[in-house]
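sry for the spam today, last one i promise. struct tokens for design, 175 residues
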């Protein structure tokens, strides 16, 4: 189903419950392509990604922080978004743009997604969540982990964003 960008933005919601079905390889490629085509600071494209569809690794990634990541175990795919702060002072921004690009692509494909914040998060013992992710996926120390985006087929349909609840009072338009 082809939708306008306006419809896509209204429909994209964070889903934390997924059907236990796989995402086909073509859909995975389209999601990753959206990340690789996303704009970056000075066009440098210094982000990196790890795509995970292995159930054992998804279950491990579900435990990388105290709360807000458990649903990853039920995802069909998780993409870890990374950058190197020494190479790119805009790594967080570049990674964030790539992450939302993947989420919009997934929505257009009829798939659900949800962001899992990793940067700056810790386990109760003080261990950085990013270090746990690096250990699970054998990610080099020089890379910083921004987030994990979980993808899957939605268990339930969520309504689009309600136009009436938009917070226009938080927008100032200068003449």
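last one done:
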């Amino acid at each position: 189903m082809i939708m306008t960008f306006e419809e896509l933005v209204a429909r994209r919601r964070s889903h934390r419950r997924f059907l236990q079905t796989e995402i086909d390889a073509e859909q995975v490629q389209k999601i990753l392509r959206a990340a690789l085509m996303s704009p970056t600071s000075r066009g440098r494209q210094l982000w990196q990604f790890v795509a995970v569809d292995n159930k054992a690794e998804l279950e491990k990634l579900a435990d990388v922080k105290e709360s807000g990541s458990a649903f990853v175990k039920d995802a069909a795919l998780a993409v870890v978004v990374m950058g190197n702060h020494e190479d790119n002072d805009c790594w967080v921004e570049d990674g964030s743009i790539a992450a939302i690009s993947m989420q919009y692509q997934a929505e257009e494909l009829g798939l659900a997604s949800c962001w899992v914040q990793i940067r700056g998060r810790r386990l109760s013992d003080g261990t950085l969540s990013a270090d746990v992710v690096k250990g699970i996926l054998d990610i080099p120390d020089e890379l910083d982990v921004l987030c994990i985006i979980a993808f899957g087929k939605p268990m339930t349909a969520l309504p689009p964003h309600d136009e009436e609840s938009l917070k226009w009072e938080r927008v100032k338009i200068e003449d």
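The first helix runs from residue 5 to 11. ok im logging off now
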